[in-house]
Amino acid sequence: MATTLEDLYSSQTIVNGKYEKNRQAGFKRCLDAVLLRVSGDQRLPAKPQMTALRDKAGSFVAGFSYRDRMEGIPNHDDQGTYDRPHNLYCQYKPADIDPVLASLGSRPWLTERHGWQCFWQPSAVSGISRSMPMTSATC
């Protein structure tokens, strides 16, 4: 589970530049991500109602910021420098996202969430095959 409610209701994506067109595309991706994170419902992005919600994705954003992914790297020329990749960080309010989830037939999943457990099965060596548990950090 996210460490705080604020973390749970936040999302990020990569956009090219800070132009309005790119920001709106980023808002759409962030909305999908935050709805998945808050609800845990993997079926939401495929629902037909999502098309209309994505069209107004920016109206659900409480605040956003950017970070230049090439921070510290000087611009070498004018070609492409205005479209440098940025991380777009979006913050949402539960009062705005929870009704959206309800309209999709879902709800926030705010109780404790269990971690993932992954298994890796190497190819058989000398006829022996076994499953080896891995930590969630390596999944």
Write the layout of secondary structure elements.
Blueprint: H1 5-8, E1 10-16, H2 20-39, H3 50-55, E2 61-68, E3 85-92, H4 94-103, E4 118-120, E5 132-134
Antiparallel strand pairs: 1-3, 2-3, 4-5
What does this structure look like?
The chain is α+β, with helices and mostly antiparallel strands and 139 residues long. The protein has helices at 5-8, 20-39, 50-55, 94-103, and strands at 10-16, 61-68, 85-92, 118-120, 132-134. It has 4 helices and 5 strands; from the N terminus they run αβααββαββ. The strands form 2 sheets. The protein has a 3-stranded antiparallel β-sheet. The two termini are 16 Å apart.
Please outline what is shown here:
This protein is α+β, with helices and mostly antiparallel strands and 139 residues long.
Count of alpha and pi helical runs: 4
Order of helices and strands: HEHHEEHEE
Number of strands: 5
Taking the alpha carbons of the first and last residues, their distance comes to 16 Å
**Approximately what portion of the residues adopt beta-strand conformation?**
15-25%
Overall pLDDT level: 82
Instruction: Characterize the overall form.
Output: globular
Low-confidence stretches: 134-139
Main beta sheet: strand number and arrangement? 3 strands, antiparallel
Taking strands numbered 1, 2, ... along the chain, how are they ordered across the largest sheet? Answer: 1-3-2
Keywords:
5 strands; globular; 3-stranded antiparallel sheet; 4 helices; two-stranded antiparallel sheet; 139 residues; alpha+beta
